[in-house]
Amino acid sequence: MRTSPPSPRRNVPRGGRLLAALAGLLAAALAWAPTAAAAPHPAAADRAAPAPAAGPAPVSGERGPDAVSPVLAPGDPIYSGGARCTLGFNVTDGDDVFLLTAGHCTAAGGYWYADPAETVPVGPAVLSSFPGNDYGLVRYADPGLASRGGYTAASPYVGERVHTVTPWTGVRSGTVTGLNVTVSYGGGVVYGLIRTSICVGGPVSGAPLFGSDGRALGIGVGGSSSCATGGTTFFQPLPEALAATGLSLY
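Structure (tokenized):
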């Protein structure tokens, strides 16, 4: 049920804006050893009030936290009642279009917007899977706001070179260091996460995880907030979320 009127439909071209930035980056394979780890509460930084007026400079087409684009793509900011998260991927059931983000984000906000002043409506949260998993859906009130990505859902392997992007920090890179990781945060336990060496140094909730050649791998759920001693960031596997919801990448 919509709790705010949709914005007028925009007739604008759609397209993924991160493929060019991430293309050509190589992956390396290492042996996998399952690991369990604990992480700080992932929503602590994400639920800070609206983003600062001066955000980091855009990286490879990624826009800063205060910009509002006519279409929303992976790595763009979303806001609800003071909470701020990142759009992971746009998905569809063939009729409606949704954005996929972290479940602890959609559990915290009922209606989401594309700007910190909450004047550009995106749509209502319609699913929150947290704890156990950590993914959630926001249905676009205007499907014209959703960009088509051209990504392919895939599963990562340990040692793979991976990348994420947020409005607050731009593009960050690292490697996959563990699979099927169990993490306790936010008052619950989440299973089957991807652990990476990416150091974001800022809010990561909902951020997309990419491999090479447009491989879409996961959704950010939390990690280290400081890069002084290296980085650890955790991601909900994307194929699991798509299979559970019956959706596909848009």
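Residues 1-61 have pLDDT under 50 and may be disordered. The first helix runs from residue 19 to 22.
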